Amino acid sequence: MTHHFAPRFRGAYSDMHCGVHPAFTLDRLDAAQHVAVYKAAGVDNVAAVWGKCHQGYSYYPTDVGIRHPRLKGDYLGDMARLMHKEDIQVYGYFSLGFDGAAVLLHPEYGVRDKSGELLRAGTGDWEGKLLPRWYWACFIGLHRDYALAQIKEMVEWYDLDGIFIDIPEPHHWQGLCYCKFCREKVRAIYNVDLMTEELDWPQTVDWWWNRTEKQMMIDVRDAIKSVKPELPMCTNVDSFAVDKEYMDTQDYLFRDASYFDIGFDQGLQLRASGIKYRQA
Predict the structure, then answer these.
(1) How far apart, in Å, do the first and last CA atoms of the chain sit?
(2) How far, in Å, CA of 142 to CA of 156, rounded?
(3) Would you call 264 helix, strand, or coil by DSSP?
(4) Which stretches does DSSP call E strand in 178-260?
(5) How far apart (Å, rounded) are the C-alpha atoms in residues 27 and 112?
(6) What's the pTM?
């Protein structure tokens, strides 16, 4: 492990979420090639090396999660080993609030609307319409222990310089979840039936913020520190939108700027799948 917070001035953020579409064969997912690109670019730290993506797939031979069905080898392990040889810091990436594969396999893991339907994040197409994409995971129900166990597994197995938690706010984006776990817990705490009654504003803030998102970050921090107390963690959250108790779970601050890195990321995805492409 390299020295945490040593001066690092040229970073990269790699944001890739491969589903099982036939285009994504991952036949050319080559850790050595990726590290060579980073080295040639003078990169000395990578803020997000794929551990588990929005699609719910892991990029290493996990015992807890769901390995990407087309993955060959141990991408996360190879990246950590090769990057450290080049003195490049490695921050393992874990998508927390999106977990498509797990939610489809275990529907009880998902965020639900009042009608009982699983909720998915919308993404814009070329006409500006919202199309369903990744499945949201609930922080109250059974997915909580599943995610924490996989985070601990990554920390135990790999020599990482930190953990980067993405999508830490499913309830922030989607509002209340009406899964049976949320309904039962709300009834126990506030004596409110979400199907027929509404939480008042102080209750909503307490439930949605203190008991879901902030508590989840406290649990994530505790899970990481229980294995490696010195290992830093960060979440992809707007620091101005959270309170001090939330920020105290963070060891460093980082916010992705996806509109800057999308071209490079798309290039890596296409190269990994052996697809020929032409740069503009």
Answers:
(1) 38
(2) 22
(3) helix
(4) 233-235
(5) 36
(6) 0.86
Strands (E), the chain: 11-12, 45-52, 57-58, 66-67, 89-95, 120-124, 130-135, 162-166, 233-235
Task: Please tell me the distance from the alpha carbon of residue 87 to that of residue 53, in angstroms, as a whole number.
Answer: 25
Q: Radius of gyration over alpha carbons of the chain, in Å? A: 19
Query: Which are the contacts of 84, defined by CB distance < 8 A and separation ≥ 6?
Result: 1, 2, 90, 159
**Which of the four pLDDT bands, split at 50, 70 and 90, describes residue 273?**
very low
C-alpha 88: how far from chain center: 21
Residue 94 φ/ψ region, left for φ over 0, alpha for ψ in the -120 to 50 degree band, beta for the rest: beta
CB-based contact 56:69 (threshold 8 Å): no
CA dist list (Å): 70 to 30, 48, 64, 272, 273: 13, 20, 17, 11, 10
Output the six-digit token pair for 163: 């953990």
Q: Does 2 score more than 50 pLDDT?
A: no
pLDDT at 172 over 70: no
- Tens of pLDDT along 149-162? 999 999 999 999 99
Sign of the C-alpha dihedral, residues 6, 239, 190, 202?
positive
Q: How many residues does the chain have?
A: 280
For 170-221, give the DSSP string: HHHHH----SHHHHHHHHHHH---TTT----HHHHHIIIIIIIIIHHHHHHH
For residues 259 and 264, give the distance between their C-alpha atoms in angstroms, rounded to a whole number. Answer: 10
C-beta of residue 22 within 8 angstroms of C-beta of residue 59: no
The label of the residue with tokens 């080559």 reads 30
Among left, alpha and beta (phi > 0; psi -120 to 50; other), residue 166 is beta
